[in-house]
Receptor-like serine/threonine-protein kinase
Amino acid sequence: MGCFDHLYAFLFSLTAALPLLSLATTSVVPGSPLTDGVTIVSPGGVFELGFFSPGRSTNRYIGIWYHNFSASTVVWVANRDAPVPDTSGSLSISGDGNLVVLDGRSRVLWSSDVFLPAENSTAQLLDTGNLVLRNSGGIAWQSFDCPTDTYLPGMKVGLDLRTNVNHLFTSWKSTDDPAPGNFSMGMNPDRSTQIFIWGNGKPLWRSGRWNGQIFMGVEGVLPEYIYGFRLSNFQMEGVMYFYFNSNSTQRYVLTSSGIDRQLLWQNDTNVWKEIWAQPTTQCEVYNRCGANASCTDTENGSAPDCSCLKGFVPSSGGCVRRAALNCGTNRSQAGSEPDRFYQMQGLKLPDFSDWDSASANASQCEGSCLANCSCNAYSFVTGIGCLIWGRELSDIHVFDDGGNDFYLRLAASEFVDKKSTVSLFLILVISIPTLAGLVLIWLLWMTRRKIRALFNQPKRDHEESAKGNDGVETETGFSSMLAEDAGNGKGPEWTIFTVEAVLAATKDFSSSNLLGQGGFGPVYKGLLPEGQEIAVKRLSKGSGQGMEEFKNEVILIAKLQHRNLVKLLGFCAQRDDKMLIYEYMPNKSLDVFLFDRSKKRVLDWSTRCSIVEGIARGLLYLHRDSRLRIIHRDLKASNILLDAGMNPKISDFGMARIFGNTDGNETATKRVVGTYGYMSPEYAMQGLFSVKSDVYSFGVLILEIVSGERNSTYQHPLLSLNLIAYAWKLWNEDNVIEFVDPTIRDSCLPNHVSRCVHVGLWCVQDRASERPTTATVIAMLEGGTVDLPNPRQPTFAFERGARVNDLTDLRYISGNSLAFTILSGR
Ligand SMILES: *[C@@H]1O[C@H](CO)[C@@H](O)[C@H](O)[C@H]1NC(C)=O
Ligand SMILES: *[C@@H]1O[C@H](CO)[C@@H](O)[C@H](O)[C@H]1NC(C)=O
Ligand SMILES: *[C@@H]1O[C@H](CO)[C@@H](O)[C@H](O)[C@H]1NC(C)=O
Ligand SMILES: *[C@@H]1O[C@H](CO)[C@@H](O)[C@H](O)[C@H]1NC(C)=O
Ligand SMILES: *[C@@H]1O[C@H](CO)[C@@H](O)[C@H](O)[C@H]1NC(C)=O
Ligand SMILES: *[C@@H]1O[C@H](CO)[C@@H](O)[C@H](O)[C@H]1NC(C)=O
Ligand SMILES: *[C@@H]1O[C@H](CO)[C@@H](O)[C@H](O)[C@H]1NC(C)=O
Ligand SMILES: *[C@@H]1O[C@H](CO)[C@@H](O)[C@H](O)[C@H]1NC(C)=O
Ligand SMILES: *[C@@H]1O[C@H](CO)[C@@H](O)[C@H](O)[C@H]1NC(C)=O
Ligand SMILES: *[C@@H]1O[C@H](CO)[C@@H](O)[C@H](O)[C@H]1NC(C)=O
């Protein structure tokens, strides 16, 4: 930070001068005060307590800082608004047993100020950074209960629900002055599970409600951050606070400009690295656009794009409803239609929601809102349930990534399809010129190709000049289409490769570089000139994957970024060649290990567990956390790639679909594509897919990972049971260990196995509604407190009549003569 350079210089000279003194003391006891110039170090040498002067100030304060970090960082200050003007101050135990800061004339500048029935107090600095005052009655006071501007791992301070005392973090006035500044941070006193930052008492930022895994109003949270973070069990403890435990050195600090920063100590470079900070964009500022309006950040960071919600119009003070809600008017009157809901996606949900505990699903939630005249909107949130809004809708931020669906109540008149009233006339007026334009463009395109063919040489020159230094082409029509799609500038980075560059990298697709045969064509290993290894998926011309699937895959995967999803580096679409370039996965795919007699053993129990968990997180990202919300539709062992550390990465998005509509609703398709053994009943039989069909495939994967057997080919030698039925049998007999792959049976933990199989069986329930969501799966796998319901016996299994044992990778595409495609569609 650089703010403490002076302090550091001072301390450095100090420690250099007084090394023995600073080591001698470890606690403050009655009768031996800590004087200026002497410090206390925690037993493990992590934190240090003593007098310091911040920034350019010469005032002296008692503070706690990291003992041996080169960049000195103060995490707590005692007498923050009552400094000692010179070096005559001391920290001591007063006659009543309290910890006090005294100036040179023994006046009390600061006191821990607790009632102590017994004397004999001692103060000790712990390795967590906590200064604890003990006496015979136990811990009488601790600095962790009186935070300043820094949250340290292990702190348990927040809103005390019994006394209504809210312990707030307060910023420093400036880097030179630790006195309480204009900003404070803490739990929302109205007991919604949100964190707020206030500036001069007014809300400046809010985290959004906690949904059990994340704060929903924080965009782009890192998985490390999500999974390292917890909310207290406030119903039991009576205190609502947030906490995390971490082995790395981290802290949150509320800066004097009102920004909450999460910083991680880099022990190799000796600097604090910021890993998270809010609010940093315009729309993260509380209610930036006012009530009834939504805020979208602009690319260049200038004023955000504020617009009234649908059905609201600008008025003098803000946005107001155009048409009054129907509620309260007499429904039986002619022409009064009930209100309807307008869906908004990917939002930071507005503030002031009420939890409607009576509604257990989205349709009940909708009904409950409709029946309540003061309800303006609702949202059904996984992990929380039904939220309804009775007050005005403030602080709405449209996220680029993630966010929740929100249903805004509007008068039925807002839904009148204006297009239908304008009728055929407009359609004709618009479509005829458009068609003509398209024909013209097509003609131009054809001629351009001809002209190109005539002047082949010049064109190639152009191509050369457009290439980057390693043969990377920088412009094609397809790329600009993708650029539009991927959201300008903010999208992940990928490059467009030329055929020549790919040929060079893969040695002309030499057979020695062949990695395997994917669903739609061969996959080759390649090496870029700068030494990066790549995997090239070459779509064969006769394959089922046409331009549509290709575009689908590029667009989808280019927008997705998660450590459990394979990363697309670029693509190549020239002439008839279509290729996708991925990061190279040295360990190929899961099936290579899982179903191979000799390699199975490499995946020991804990590796398998972490693979299951990784896939679940990747899937959760697809289903819920990515803005797009994606159903993969072809989850299977060969689509799970493994990196050098055996971390799983979901790949192959050729079949994936975006589901923009309501949660979990099923969509029908006429093209049933997927892989034998992984398809859910409703999908295979009726072409219905939803997130729950992915959950089914994931359930099959879990069972395969535990047993090391392929669901599609497995048949118990004696019992003539398929894999799912066999798992069911053993699970019911409380004998799941028998189900575990024999090669790793001794490394596994019986209760983990039981949980995995339980979750697996629950995921492969016949009825989609009885399967858990991905979020629930993760909570269960992590051993959370979620009660696992007993699954029913899964009965769905493919008929085995056709002897399809070796068709494990066969894709069923409609038009094939295979049975279930005939049933597709609704
Ligand atoms: C701090 O000191 C301890 C004990 O001497 C040492 O183990 C640790 O690596 C030091 N940390 C830093 C960041 O220098
Ligand atoms: C204070 O501590 C000392 C040493 O532990 C002990 O001898 C003494 O009895 C204690 N006094 C009281 C009042 O507890
Ligand atoms: C704190 O707020 C007051 C009143 O708005 C303002 O005058 C002062 O400059 C602010 N201080 C800082 C450090 O921002
Ligand atoms: C932190 O350390 C504890 C014990 O030292 C260990 O059990 C735990 O796995 C570690 N956690 C992380 C995230 O490394
Ligand atoms: C730095 O951190 C890494 C990972 O936490 C640890 O393995 C390493 O020992 C640390 N190095 C020092 C010098 O503390
Ligand atoms: C930022 O972008 C907006 C539109 O997106 C534009 O109106 C504005 O002029 C831009 N501002 C700057 C400083 O570039
Ligand atoms: C938001 O809309 C509601 C309903 O129309 C209205 O009562 C309220 O005044 C509006 N708020 C603002 C700030 O315009
Ligand atoms: C609604 O209208 C019906 C018939 O016009 C009338 O009988 C009924 O009392 C009205 N209800 C209310 C609440 O006004
Ligand atoms: C929602 O719950 C109600 C009552 O439990 C039930 O009747 C209804 O079918 C459920 N709706 C859906 C879509 O699951
Ligand atoms: C109607 O909604 C308001 C606002 O959320 C809430 O306070 C009230 O309890 C609800 N009334 C009923 C009957 O549910």
